[in-house]
Structures are given as C-alpha cells and as structure tokens.
Target: Translocation protein SEC63 homolog
Amino acid sequence: MAGQQFQYDDSGNTFFYFLTSFVGLIVIPATYYLWPRDQNAEQLRLKSLRRVHGRCLWYRLRLMKSQQSVVPTLKKAALLFGWAVFLLLAYKVSKLDREYQEYNPYEVLNLDPGASVSEIKKQYRVLSLKYHPDKGGDEATFMRIAKAYAALTNEQSRQNWETYGNPDGPGATSFGIALPAWIVDQKNSILPPFLLQGTWWYRSIRYSGDQILISTTQLFMHFMYKTPNMNMKRLTMVLTAAFEFDPRSNKEATIRPTDNIEVPQLIRELGNINVKKKEPPFCYPYSLKARVLVLSHLARMEVSEELDEDQRFVMRKSPALLQEMINVGCQLTMMANSRGGTRSFHAPRLVTIENCMKLTQMIVQGLQESKSPLLQLPHFEEEHLRYCISKKYKVRTLQDLVSLKDSDRRSMLRFLGEEKYDEVMAVLGSFPHITMEIKLQVLDDEDSHNITAGSIVTVTVTLTRKRMADMFEKEQEASACPGEEAANAEEGDTNKAKTKVWQNKNKGAKKTAKSKKKKLTKKKATPAPIKAKQANGNVAGNVSTSAAKEDDDEASDKGSESDDGEANKDSPSERDDESDKQSDTEVDEGAGDDEEEWEALQQSIQRRERALLETKSKVTHPVYSLYFPEEKQEWWWLYIADRRDQTLVSMPYHVCTLKDSEEVELKFPAPSKTGNYQYSVILRSDSYLGLDQIKPLKLEVHEAKAMLDNHPQWDIPDTEEEDEEQEDSDGIEESDDEDEDND
Model:
C-alpha cells in the first residue's frame, strides 16, 4: 500500500498561489463594503434632517466630518494599494513555471509517440553520449533519459507507466503545503498561531459580549450588590468609576497636564460633588475627571476645547455603560428570585434600575433631573419657562404643549419670533408619540383568560409609534370644525347632519343589541357591571378586552333569548324545540370559541417563530439631542413592575426596532397565592425626558386545578380485571385443546 508524504514549498513558488488567493479574498469584499459611497447620498440625508436636527451637536459634527473628512481618501488609497498587491501577485503567478507536469517518456527522449524499439535505442544512445556524467553531462537529465528508455523497452515498466503514470509503479501520495518551510520551522512554528490565539484570548478575557470591560462589569456588580437602593448622585459616581475612562485600561481615555488646572475650576463652579470621598475608585483622578465632565454636561456648562473632546468621549460611552448596569441589576434580581428572596442576598431595588434609565435620558439630552422637559426643545431657556407655567396656560410637559390650542400656543411663545416658533414646532412634531395596547393571557392552556397560581402569564404589548405632528393634525381638525360652523351656519348644519348619519351608521348595527343589554342589566344588575368594571380597569380598557367582548356577546345573546321568550309565550312543545335549538347553538358557539382560541394560539406561535428568524435593523429614528455628540437611535425599555413592593415582575426588554409598530411578549410567573394583584406596565425612553408611560395591570389569580394522580381511562374495575383474566385463561385452554386435536 502506498504511503503518504507531506512536503513544504522550499522554493516559495507555490506560496504565491496561496498568497494571491488570500489577498483576493480580502480585497474584493473589502472593496464592495468599504469603498466610499457617493457623498451626495449622505449630503441628501443630512439635508432632509436639517429642518429638525439642524441645531443638534451630533448633526453639526456629522456635517463637518462629511465636508472635511480625509477618511474616504485614506480608504480609497488603502484599497488601491491592496489591488496593486493583488495584481502584482497575479502577474508573478502567471510567470511561474509549471513544476508538476504529466510524465511522458517519449517527450523525455524527444520521440514521437509510437516510435519503434530500434528508434528508441538509437535515440537513447545519442542522448547518453551527450548527457552521461562521464562525458560531462548532467546527472539528473541522464537519469530521466535512462528512466524513459527503461519505461519504453521493459514490459513491466511500460505497464506501470500506462497504469500508474510512473515506470516504478504506485508511489507515495504527496501532499503539497503552499507555505514556505521557514514559516513552519521548529523555531518559528509557534509564532503565527500564538499571535492569533493570543489576540483572541486577550480580547475575550477583557471584554464582554457587549464590548464592555469585564472589570467594569464586576465593578458595577459589586456596588449594586453593596448599595441596592442607589440614588442619582451615587449612581453617577459608580458610572464614572468605569474602567473605560481609565487610561491604564483604555487607550482612548486621556489624562492631560492641563487637567490639574481646568478640572478644579469646574469643581468650584459645580459645588458639592463628593470630592473628599476616599472610597476607591471614586477618589482616583480618572474617576473624578469623568464625574466632573458628566455633571458639567448635565448642567450645560461650557468647557475648554481639550476638555470638550474628553467630554464627548465620556458621553459616547455612557449609554452603553448604563445599559450594562441595567443588565447587571436584572441578573442580580434573577439570582435573588431563584434563592426565594432570602434576605442574605441584596437584590437592587426597582428605583436603582429606573434611575439608570433616567440617567441615560439625562445624558442624551444634557439635562439635570429636576429640570423641565421643555428645555429639550430649541431656543427654550430657564427664563422662558415662567411664561409656560403661568396660571393661564399651566404647561409643564411636552404633552401639555401639544394639547394646547394653536392660538394659545402662539400667544404663550410670543417671545419667539416666527422663524424660531416654526423651528420649535417642527422639532416638537418629530418627537415620538407611543400608544400601548396590552393583552393578558396564559398561553398553552385550555382557558387562556383564567390565571391560576404559579402559571406562566404572557402580556402581549403592541407598541405603535407616531409623531407628535399627528396629534397637531388631530387638534387642528377638531378646532377647524367649530370655526367652519361659525362661518357658515348652513354648512355647519349639513356637517352636523352628516356626523349624525355617520354615527347612526356605526351604531345602527348594534342598536337592538344595546337595547336588549339594557333589559338584561335591569333584571340582572350585579354580574354585568362587575365584568364591565374589570374590563375597563384592566390596563386602561386594553387588558382582557377579548374576554370582556365575549362576555358582552354572551349577555346580549341571553338577553335576546329571554326577551323573545317573554314576548312569545308559546306551547311547551315549542319551548322544548327552542331549548333544543338553544343548546345546539351554545354547543356550536363553544366549538367556535375553541377554534378561535386555537387559531389565536397558532398565530402567536407563528409570530414568535418569525420574530426569532427575522433580524430587524436597529436603525429606527434619529434622536433630537442638542448636546449629545453622536447620532443616536430612538430605543425604549418595556417591563412590568410591582411599584408597591419596588420589585421587577418581568425583566426589562430593550426595544431597539420600533420604527412603526412592534409586538413584545413579556412573560412572568403568576404569584403562588390567590388574590388580586396590582402591577404596572412601564415604557421608558432611553433618549427623551417626559415621554415615559405607566399603565396599570390588574391580575386576578385563581386557585390552580387539582391534578389527578391516575388517568381515568386506565382505571379498570376489579370485576372487569377478573373477567379479563378468566377470558385469557379460557383462551389458553382452548388453544391447548386445538393443539391436542391437531396432534
């Protein structure tokens, strides 16, 4: 059996094939992905955002970068250099001689195929006299000539050549490795894999999956465990103690000689920031500098150019670090829940996690916690707020400003010119307006609306994102109707008539049903109002709406049947027929409800499967932020909490793909004790102040059904077992008798 032989490319020729392929695999995709696109596309995008985001810091920095950046030129130069290297290697490969050619003895002897034996001997004699070593010829060439002569004159050699392509028969299988021998030499063989593995290992032991230093994650975990109830001042100190701001751990962080002069000056302007804190790492210079830069950013203070660059670096890193703090808090909460809520384990309180979310909003908008959310708008200053919070207007939030009439809004903002007013309205109109629809159910259960102790509750939240400008349009439409009626009475009358007809069209289909419902509620006053209150109380009329609708439909059906029975007092036989028909319709309705629940369950499963398979882009909407140095996308946190006990019920879900609408499922185990529970579904923005939403979630937990130990279909009475044993014995005796008869 032939052996195997591995050999390296000592000459280095085959290595050029490998190197050419390697460079081509890098240069071709890099050209497709990294070649600078048309700058006009970026300019058009920035032009479309100019009206709203023209004053944003990130917008101005992006505009300057697109106009003065040399990065596209460097990218082009690097890619052109790569193509030059690739073409040079390809030219080198095309000039290489083929070393591995098919062996042909006729070509070695310079004979035509099919030459006679005499011609072969004659040619061999001539070539041997020319290339024999004793005659001064080349020994290697003479050996090839002798091997070709033997292959053509010896029967065995000729057969081996025709079968294996080699006069000597099957040889060792040779595997060529397209690497020079020096790169795998014993002295150098450990160098390439050591460099690759060392680089990967160095990054894996330093950074987490979210590119946060593992030492920073450990720092956050330590302080969140040590201080479960963390206020905003303490949270800021923990954030700025991250090792991302330490030059010894991160090369992007810098400590300048001028910091000894500028940082103390900012400390005197800021006031009390716990400078004398001796607890490490809060007392370290890098932590103190980062804390000063964050607090000066929240106070919207002006800093020098050098500190401004460092401040932008700190601001860019802060949202990701705060998200890591939220993740750490959720992990500690899960650990505490798994231990049964023992007091020995200090889980962070709900206020700590929510303060992390608030601090993210504050850093993105450059506002302190106590400041008005109206300061997020352009041209608004502290002295302008007195016009808004006056007794006449009482505008304290963005929603108050939106709901204000246009005439009152213009009167209130009269300190702004017409141009500035239009800019403020354009910015306010771009802010998000989120509506939440909440559905509470227990999936994979026969009765999905019955919540039992310990069951897994699924809260499906449908988020719909619109702009504040849509609210303006609705308000303008609502205000336009009275104006038209005052201007033209006849047109107003026709409009009123049209609205009445439109209302009757919508309500006409359910007119009889409502009248029958009223009759039913007069007779049965207790159950229907209770159900209505529960349906209206559950999450602002959105929770368990489907169950409430089913109850109303059933009540209307029963009411119509009772009215018909009172109006038509027929014979008993007719009543029996009606009762039979009624029972049949109830069975059909029950089957239809089961089918609807099954279809809803299948649809939810399909939605979950599609959500797992789809990878949505995290590019949603650019955030309007006057002082944040980087273009940020609009993201949200969605979670369920028990605000009375200050605990998380479900872990916060980071909604990063809400462009128009998004459906999120929040799961949590129902309490182990029966009773009524009051939770809250909370939606928080990670970019804007004053746009958070809190909706109540009422949970009525019932006692779980008792599980049967034995399945009823397997319970066999004793008499039946005896009968079966007797039948088995009779069958065995009959088979024995048949065997004897056959014998």
Observations:
- The first strand starts at residue 4 and ends at 9.
- The two ends are 64 Å apart (CA to CA).
- The mean pLDDT is 75.
